[in-house]
Amino acid sequence: MKRQKNWTGLFLGTALVCLALVIGLTVSIDPYMHYRRPQLDKFRYEPKAEAERSINNGMLRHLDYDALLVGTSMMENTKTSLADSLFGCHSIKTVSIGASWWEISSLEALALEHNPELSLVVRGLDMTYFDEAPQALHYEIGPYPTYLYNDNPLDDVYYVLNRDVLYRNCLPMLLDAAEGVTPGLSNLDDYGAWKQEVYGPRAAMRRDTPYADAVQEKLSDQRRERVLYNVREKVLSLAEANPDTVFYYFLTPYSAAWWGDLRQAGQLEAQLEMEELVIRSILPCGNIRLYSWNTVEELTFDLANYKDRIHYGPWVNDWMLEKMASGEGLLTADNVEEYLSRERELFETFDYNTLFDQPEPAQYGAPEFFRQ
Amino acid sequence: MQYSTYLFILVALPLTVCGYYLFARLGRKAANLFLIVASLCLYAYGGWKGLLWLCVSIGVNSLLLSAMKRWKKGTKALLWLGIVFHVGLLFVFKYLNFAAQTVNLVLHTAIYPPSLALPLGISFFTFQQIAYLVDASQGQREGDSFLDYVLYVVYFPKLIMGPIAPAEDIIPQFHQESRLRFRQEQFSAGIQQFTFGLFKKAVLADTFASAAVFLTMEEASALELILMMLAYTFQIYFDFSGYSDMALGFSRMLNIDLPMNFDSPYKALSIRDFWKRWHMSLTAFLTRYIYFPLGGSRKGKARTYLNTIIVFLISGLWHGASFGFVLWGLLNGLLSVFERMTEQYRKYIPKVLQWLLTFGVINVLWLLFQNGSTTEWIGRLTKILAFADTNICSGFYERFLTPEIQLLLRLLRLDMGLLWVRRAVLGLFYGGSLLLCLVPENTCRREYGMTARSAILTALLLVFCLTCLSKNAVFVYNQF
User: Is B450 in contact with A4 (CB distance < 8 Å)?
Assistant: First the structure.
């Protein structure tokens, strides 16, 4: 073959043109809405569960909404359409599986900063993270795309030359457009929502050995300080800085199997103390409506609602939204003492080994209580 | 700084290459000085503490080298002092915890030394420091200047993961004036080799990496365990040889030739043949500085066998601080000895069978290397041999349904949910990778053309690889 005289020039020229094409394509389609509002009249945007951390930021900054559903896997099955009809709002959902309080609060803060119209926030307060480290970021669930959350244009290279962005988003979006797929934003009810999973005592408990008794540990001063710090910095500060926004928060209702494991590990007392601290700290805040359904036995004690110790079925998300809209389960200064003593009594005295006697559900779906 | 990062490819590499030829206009010294500064900057990007220890290592060696020049009679003592220092440094960083665990196990003590962050490439630069010291003690490095020595140690293309290059191969190149001119054919070959290496790393090794550890021994079926074992075999080869290609390619762009490190090792027909092809610079180092001084094959058969086993034990320990690695080295040594003993019968075995046996043994040994634990290794082998279950779960297939493969399937109007499609993709990765290991000419030996087609294809491949760097990946051999 003929030897190319200016091989270097041809190589560099081709590489630069291709790089410019790839970068240009990503910037112009911008599937994660990093640079601008989505082009809903041209392309089909489908936020996917595997890219939650990547797309949340752009959605919060560039979509139109006045209500936000935000949280971890505890919120993934929450439906924006149901929230819209119950609260008369236009909501979006930004979820991040396994995210820390800090990460979720950062999303909330971002929304509040960019959207003055935001009047309602619904968020699950994950009970496992009450006393986690102040700036905890859970890398074990996947890399955190800092380049999408900071203002440094140089590290945007991770976005504009990104395997997932290019081959899973930009080019398929172009193909969609060419094939005449209706442009717009996909139904956010489905964003992060799970496929049909297996629910029931076997899946929820994942154990064969009986629950054992243990000496219960008191909450240490260090953990108490952490809980108070987390509530102050990640919950109260946002509410106080945004008095016109109403925050619907709920304590994520984990299963009795989770409480049984806690008790066996000697952590039940500490958990109850932490929860009490959280509730008593939040209650005085006027624009936070705090809900808990931990004492609803048809929910937490019926393992047919759970696919593991903490994850409840989508019917629970619907039910909780309805309860929030109707005010059932709202914790107030008047009922908090009764709630706390009832919860303590329930989880301290329950015979967790009776969970083994629960029958497996005959089929996938909500138990009778939630169908009423 | 890792080669397979945007920062290196888009910023550091062009700056280093351009800077080198700009400074080269000022003369050889300026160019070499630039390479030292650039190398230290690139190394320091991985952490200043590592740089500190590298400087300490260079400082101590420089003092010893200077003392050797002045006190000829004490050369041997100084050499041993240097070896003890370098091995000691490596021991503190890499083997202290392993030693403490061993002592605790044997003597039932409770010694827990602080765990120290391993300076990047310490296993590689320590061996080169020792090699230089040995050469100097034998009077072979008389003509080198201080700058020559420092550049030889810190020269970035080989600093963090080799190849472990002998000083006599590298330092003379620093002196050649002809290498200060930009040569298009060298740059072309260099960028092509670099791009092949990047492809091996970013596209192949990283895909196999996610499959190699996808399931635990308990979760996996026998067939999945075999596929995971093969995945690791491909991962470690594409990872390390990919790195070597990038190192050699980068160096070629600077007109400095580094020694070949891989010679298509999976083409080997015996374990001894394999070690002549795999990580060749380490094998060469161990042969020259340990096997030969021990007597090599000059002191009878028994001593040859013993020396072989000693070398492989050291190689095992060099790769990792655990009994699993020691056993891995020992098994390689024993197999090499067995092959020497049965050499005369080899001609009776068909070559295909020789290859199959060798490739099978390499896989089984990599399985031990990967897990580091003999219990896990035996457990996996037992399950594989029982071959009771041949199920492949959907998640395993999905490891290979990379974003670009998904796009390709869509363009071909193929449903990736179909089992035959998934099997075809899996087969494409495994079969294609095996062919890549066995058929084409090695990246170091092949002639790199300078045609318009090669320029365009290299540019396209480079840009494709760049779009595959979405996750910050780390080379497997970094831990050594």
Answer: yes
3-state SS, B339-404, equals HHHCHHHHHHCCHHHHHHHHHHHHHHHHHHHHHCCHHHHHHHHHHHHHCCCCCCCHHHHHCCCCHH
Q: What is the 3-state secondary structure (H, E, C) of B399-461?
A: CCCCHHHHHHHHHCCCCCCCHHHHHHHHHHHHHHHHHHHHCCCCCCCCCCCCEHHHHHHHHHH
Residue A249 three-state SS: strand
Q: Which residues of B are catalytic?
A: 319
| Residue A22 to residue A162: CA distance in whole angstroms | 9
Q: Is the CB of residue B334 less than 8 Å away from at least one CB of chain A?
A: no
What lies within 8 Å, CB to CB, of B389 at 6+ separation is B221, B222, B223
SS3 A165: helix
Q: How far is B381 from chain A (nearest CA, A)?
A: 28
- Chain B interface includes A15 (CB < 8 A): yes
Is A18 an interface residue toward B (CB < 8 Å)?
yes
Nearest of B399, B397, B361 to residue B381 by alpha carbon: B361
Contact in structure between A324 and A250 (CB atoms under 8 Å): yes
Amino acid at B325: F
Contact A250, A292 (CB under 8 A): yes
Q: Chain B contacts of A13, Cβ < 8 Å?
A: 459
The amino acid present at B412, given as its one-letter code, is L
User: Torsion angle, CA of B255/B465/B363/B304, rounded to 10 degrees?
Assistant: 10
Distance of residue B63 Cα from the nearest chain A Cα, in angstroms: 43
How many angstroms separate the CA atoms of A62 and B40, rounded?
A: 43
Provide Rg for chain B, Cα atoms. Answer: 24
Q: Write out chain A residues lying below 8 Å of B458, CB-based.
A: 11
Alpha-carbon distance B194 to nearest alpha carbon in chain A (angstroms): 13
Note the pLDDT tens digit of each residue in B37-76. Answer: 999 999 999 888 889 999 999 999 999 999 998 888 888 9
Distance between CA atoms of A143 and A155, rounded to whole angstroms?
15
Q: Does A237 touch chain B (CB under 8 A)?
A: no
Structural domains present in chain A: 53-148+188-371 (3.40.50.1110)
Which residues are within 8 A (CB) of B366 and not within 5 positions of it... i.e. 6 or more apart?
Answer: B229, B232, B233, B236
Cα–Cα distance measured from residue A58 to residue A149, given in angstroms and rounded to the nearest whole number:
9
Closest CA to A121 of A290, A360, A264, A319: A290
Residue B234: count other Cβ atoms within 10 Å of its Cβ: 25
- Note whether A168 contacts B10, CB cutoff 8 Å: no
In this prediction the ipTM stands at: 0.86
Element (H, E) at A121: strand A120-125
Measured from the Cβ of residue A257, the count of other Cβ atoms closer than 10 Å reads 25
**Is the CB of A172 less than 8 angstroms away from the CB of B451?**
no
Residue B477 is predicted with a pLDDT of: 46
From chain A, the residues in CB contact with B253 under 8 A are none
B187 contacts in chain A (CB < 8 Å): 8
- Residue B285 CA to residue A90 CA, distance in Å, equals 69
Structure-token pair, residue A225 = 């300080």
Q: pLDDT tens-digit profile of A333-360?
A: 999 999 999 999 999 999 999 999 999 9
Residue among A10, A18, A162 whose CB faces B455 most closely: A10
Task: Give the per-residue pLDDT at B94.
Answer: 86
